Amino acid sequence: MKIIILLGVLFYTSMIYAQKVTVQDKTTNEPIEFVQVGSKGAQEVLFTNKKGEVDISIFKGLNDIIFKLYGYEPREYSYETLLENDFIIEMSPSVFIMNEVVISANKWSQISSDVPYKVSKLSAKDIAFHNPQTAADLLSVSGDVFVQKSQQGGGSPMIRGFATNRLLYTIDGVRMNTAIFRGGNVQNVISLDAFAMENAEVLFGSSSTIYGSDAVGGVMSFQTLKPRFSDNDQPYVKGKAIARYATANNEKTGHFDINVGWKKWAMVTSVSASKFEDLKQGSFGPDDYVKPYHVQRVDSVDVVMAQDDPLLQQPSAYSQINLMQKVRFSPNKNWDFEYGFHFSETSSYGRYDRHTSLKNGAPKYAEWNYGPQKWMMNQLSITNYSANALYDQMNIKIAHQEFEESRIDRKFNKSKRRTRTESVTAYSLNADFAKRLGKKNNLFYGLEYIINDVNSIGVSEDINTNISTASASRYPMAQWQSIGAYVNDEYTLTDQITLQAGLRYTHFLLDADFDNTFYSFPFQKANLDNGALTGGIGGVYKINSKTVLRLNASTAFRSPNVDDIGKIFDSEPGTVVIPNPNLNAEYAYNVDLGITKVIGNVLKLDLTGYYTILENALVRRNFTLNGADSILYDGTLSQVQALQNAAKANVYGLQAGLSINLTNGFLLNSKFNYQVGEEEMDDGTVSPSRHAAPWFGVTRLSYTYRKLKLELNAMYQGERKNEDMSVSEIGKTDIYALDENGNTYAPSWYTLNLKIMYQFHENFSVSGGLENITDQRYRPYSSGLSGAGRNFILSLTANF
């Protein structure tokens, strides 16, 4: 009798346990977290934990238990079927995702098929597999963003013929662009930690309605790791540790992050540290890219030293550290508070393209380095869910950021070292609201206030006597402010047609005080007090579940900032750019037309054509200072130039994506980008735009089976002939190759790359690969630094 009772208890216990479903990835057999489980016959919605488990006892007896997660094909089962399958569910990754969740389009979660913009998204899995060394390299992984580099510690994206201060960065919804983002290349994106990313999105086209100034060519939105709560009485603990090594620059990187969550409190800690030695370029390519020497100080004399390895790009070494701490508190289902702290700092690093400059057959510079680049952000995010008259959801973000960068240069065999340091303190307040009006109307609106305080100093030091004196700063002391309000409406006209329209007004102010100690400017102050009205209208037509047509027309603007109005710098030998306080905002007018088509489960085609007109474009033009067209600058008689609203620019192009499901785990994916840019010159002629890159793209053949993923890919760029070069680029013999006539041009190039990831244990995986297998010597368009030669990468990840 006792045995029968015992067996009955065991049977009953097993039945209770059997109600806990385990959800696995069909390809890898790994548990899947955050799978949504629901039923039409019940109001409750459940989610799987990190072990892929969820207790479905509340759904017992139902016939339509639905399992959903973006990136996977949804599955529906009856309770009896689950019982027959031992409560183990396998979900297949979606080969072609039509309804991906994106947030960059209007700052709230949206289904991508409802968005009239083109949006490219990278998940944490994509980032982990491709092992980007920096956040700039992360953007290259998308295949839709071209990245220029003048030094290894950098990376300046080009999108649809625009770059730098005509593109916008956001981190966790906070604007990263500052009042000193320049028209030349910027490397601020490397302050972000690729290891700490939950996902990254690129929103293409003019987006000032939601994001304000600078969103002319697109928006790069980065979402960092979000603290997760526990769904039971036990703490939720999840984290990873990573060690990585790469041969092309002897990279040594370590990373650690951990999430600890309770029911109402959660926190995430992330730390990354990297050290990169001088980058070695490939063996086969233009000899113009080889600089087989570097400058070294010996007994108070600058000496040109031959390199043991002429393919090393010296100096390009640097190191970096990133820290992140987040704390989240949710007292109830209506309120969510999150505080985030971010810190990043690099070592000093050489701007390699300046070290290739020659003067009278000798190096022009003995030193040209960027000082440590520092970035710090404190952010408080407050989210409220409340179905009241004003909103259903409210999100308030308050942020404080500190930026510091510096430039250090010294001419060859000169004793004067010049250091110019810039710091920016930025405060921002964003209040965004979402309100559902009836069954078909979603209203989004918000307010924004930004203030930037710019501090800039210059110091000249005699390295022989160690005596320092004040010198001209790069910028005036200045304050830049922006106040904006927007409204954007999404209306579901039918089940097939969704319309969006929005309007924004932004008022911007700038006050700058110039120091005339070193230059005799005909002014001491500069003030701007102006506004910009922008808007957009677009629509999505879902012809059927496999075909989506997008059309969007929008405007954007970029208000002049401190860099535009107040900078003094040598853009190239014999030319000096001086301040011009009489500037107005640039305006862009953009049209997009796109189509996404899925044929069966075999092929997906995505095409987007666009045309953008930029008016009142800020461009460098010849200028005068006190009636003179040339001044003595840094010991050289230099042509005076200044930024002016003197041009009109046009950019048009095509973005294409093709995916073919070859079955049995094989997938072919290709992305291609073609853009043409033109800008008006002083004499009325037209020149190709500097930031419109040649055609470029990536083609990938991947294979996935269980715990193994392999990928062979090719990255490539077309040629830019001398006659197609921008007027501003033609004279840059330091960074471009020379054709048979001795003229500058950008050669075409390709790299073949092999990637691999294998999970050999429940908690351990190894990844890496071989990049640039054929050891090509190549240099992305407009870059002063060649890409890595043959590069072996090995990374070990421990998950817990």
From TrEMBL:
Domain (TonB-dependent receptor-like beta-barrel) ranges: 347-773
Topological type in the membrane: Multi-pass membrane protein
Lineage top rank: taxon: Bacteria
Domain TonB-dependent receptor plug: start-end pairs: 113-219
GO function terms (MF aspect): siderophore uptake transmembrane transporter activity
Primary localization class, coarse: membrane
Signal peptide interval: none
One GO process term, biological-process aspect: siderophore transmembrane transport
GO cellular component, one term: cell outer membrane
Keywords: Cell outer membrane, Membrane, Receptor, Signal, TonB box, Transmembrane, Transmembrane beta strand, Transport
One Pfam family named in its UniProt record: Plug
Subcellular location(s) of the protein: Cell outer membrane
Family that this chain belongs to: Belongs to the TonB-dependent receptor family.
The protein's name: TonB-dependent receptor
